[in-house]
Specification:
Elements: H1 2-16, H2 20-27, H3 39-46, E1 48-63, E2 70-83, H4 84-88, E3 93-104, H5 107-112, E4 128-139, E5 144-151, H6 153-156, H7 175-180, E6 190-200, E7 203-212, E8 232-241, E9 244-245, E10 250-266, E11 278-294, E12 303-313, E13 320-331, E14 341-351, H8 353-365, E15 375-388, E16 391-401, E17 412-422
Antiparallel strand pairs: 1-2, 1-17, 2-3, 3-4, 4-5, 5-6, 6-7, 7-8, 8-10, 9-10, 10-11, 11-12, 12-13, 13-14, 14-15, 15-16, 16-17
Length: about 425
């Protein structure tokens, strides 16, 4: 897809007679649509930043899963950020708005049968919707930041830019926490607020509260702002340490957090096929770390970063009682490829012990009546090519072991491709 875009663009340039110098300038622009004759830069100088983008993820499983198949999904995004310090003389104030359109299919659900999606861009709002409308205020030289409005917990907690250098949703989006609770994830927002305090230059603490409303992700509700259907609130908290380690000042990010969701949820230990009980509240905690461990020279953006995540959630209500992941991301690959990346990561997700006990009991009563789940594991290897400053292409290979955490579904080999364009 990305290569086709590049070839098509060059053909248009040739047909319309645009000079090679101008074409070269376009391919080096920050945005695909350029600076609009200086209008974009002028707006940004006044405090108005307009943004847009296209993200697609394609995937096919030639081997394994429930059947062989192919799926394509995409997201188109448009929004703006207003610097109210420039516009209204309100220092530290910002207003954000984002609209999205998502469509496509999920290979995980239609062909593989896995719990974790192999296309992170699929789901959580397959329609046109208001993704964000928020006000942000920084005070005391950015030591205190508060945000409120139509927002997402996943933008503020348990997140790192490293994770979305992968196509699998087990890495990008930390989907385990989302599956286990009402942790809201882009682009489906809800009403919420978060406050972050910089205790020191390298230490912060933050806490938030967000509406939990399962109806908001439904197709007809792209612009639903009412609270009907809400089941409670989720309250995450996090402490982070962001050191520069060693004589080379290698950057690291270490986070410890947890959450409590006040919603009622199905009790996973209920008898299979019997009366369904409910449990009050959902909870969990997580540890995350990413640390650059090598770079060729001080201050260089090139380098190798290692990362790891460990999480645990209450087995009474959490489908994924525990999950962990480890991985590496190399930025700057070959000579002259300073912005290309190579990523390798493994994700392991274990099923709730309460659910496994209920499945085992059902089989003891009626042998082979249900499949007893255990754990699902995914490995991803990818290479992201920076085609231009405004476009990337990321071929990837994923391998899903025990899809749906059962041994009866063959392990699946997945070939994927992600295309990203910044308008």
């Amino acid at each position: 897809m990305g290569l086709r875009l590049g070839v098509a663009s060059l053909c248009i340039l040739a047909v319309t007679g645009i000079s090679a110098a101008r074409a070269q300038s376009w391919l080096q622009d920050k945005y695909m649509t350029g600076d609009w004759g200086g209008t974009r830069s002028a707006l940004e100088a006044r405090g108005v930043s307009l943004r847009g983008g296209y993200l697609s993820e394609s995937a096919a499983n030639p081997v394994g899963g429930l059947s062989q198949g192919f799926a394509y999904a995409h997201q188109v995004e448009a929004g703006f950020d207003l610097d109210l310090g420039k516009l209204l003389a309100l220092p530290g104030g910002k207003l954000h708005a984002t609209f999205t359109e998502r469509t496509g299919q999920s290979l995980a659900s239609q062909s593989i049968g896995s719990i974790i999606s192999v296309q992170e861009v699929f789901g959580s709002g397959q329609n046109v919707r208001l993704a964000e409308l928020s006000y942000e205020q920084s005070l005391f030289e950015n030591r205190l930041t508060a945000k409120l409005g139509w927002i997402h917990a996943s933008d503020d907690f348990a997140t790192s830019p490293i994770y979305c250098h992968f196509q699998n949703n087990g890495f990008c989006g930390q989907i385990g926490i989302v599956i286990n609770s009402g942790f809201t994830i882009f682009p489906t927002g809800s009403w919420g607020s978060v406050v972050k305090v910089g205790v020191r230059d390298d230490v912060y603490v933050q806490a938030g509260i967000y509406e939990v409303n399962p109806t908001l992700s439904l197709a007809p509700n792209g612009f639903k702002l009412g609270t009907s259907g809400a089941t409670g609130v989720i309250m995450p908290g996090e402490i982070g340490w962001q050191p520069l380690l060693g004589p080379a000042s290698l950057p690291g990010h270490y986070r410890m957090g947890g959450y409590y969701d006040t919603s009622d949820a199905p009790y996973l230990g209920s008898p299979i096929g019997g009366p369904q009980s409910t449990a009050r509240g959902r909870w969990g905690f997580y540890l995350q770390a990413d640390q650059m461990i090598y770079r060729p020279s001080a201050g260089s953006d090139r380098g190798l970063t290692a990362f790891a995540v460990v999480a645990y959630a209450g087995p009474d209500t959490a489908l994924l009682q525990s999950f962990w992941q480890v991985g590496f991301l190399q930025k700057g690959t070959f000579a002259g490829r300073d912005h290309d990346t190579i990523g390798l990561a493994v994700n392991y997700s274990r099923i709730s012990s309460q659910l496994v006990a209920a499945q085992t009991l059902a089989n003891a009563t009626v042998p082979a009546s249900v499949s007893v789940q255990s754990a699902e594991t995914t490995i991803e290897l990818n290479y992201r090519v920076q085609l231009t400053p405004w476009s990337t292409l990321m071929p990837n290979i994923q391998y899903v072991m025990q899809p749906n955490a059962v041994s009866t579904i063959p392990n699946a080999l997945v070939l994927g491709a992600q295309v990203r364009v910044t308008f």
